[in-house]
Design a protein that fits this description.
Helices cover 68% and strands 0% of the residues. It is an all-alpha fold. The protein has a domain of 56 residues.
Length: 95
């Protein structure tokens, strides 16, 4: 009777820790992007946004998997409604 409760508590602690680590990573990623944007907006305003995005991606590298989506460092966008299959458009209420 005690063992399932102990396992549940252990899993809860592990899951909470992983969530907090990811939260800290995203906050640091936003901080790195903002810091980079401030620095490069005075040096080269044309590339400040791209450099800030790249800084945010670099800050999230420790949290990414080793899959191809994450190794190239490019941002992946969500499909626009025109690019979605028609069946999905109907489910989302897009005509």
């Amino acid at each position: 009777m005690v063992m399932p409760i102990y396992i549940l508590l252990l899993c809860l602690v592990i899951e909470t820790t992983m969530g907090l680590i990811a939260k800290i990573g995203t906050v640091y990623s936003a901080y790195a992007a903002a810091r980079n944007a401030i620095v490069y907006s005075s040096i080269d305003p044309a590339s400040a946004d791209e450099r800030a995005r790249h800084a945010a991606v670099r800050a999230m590298v420790p949290f990414a998997s080793s899959g191809q989506r994450h190794t190239d460092g490019t941002a992946h966008t969500v499909a626009l409604p025109d690019e979605m299959p028609r069946s999905l458009n109907g489910q989302l209420g897009i005509s």
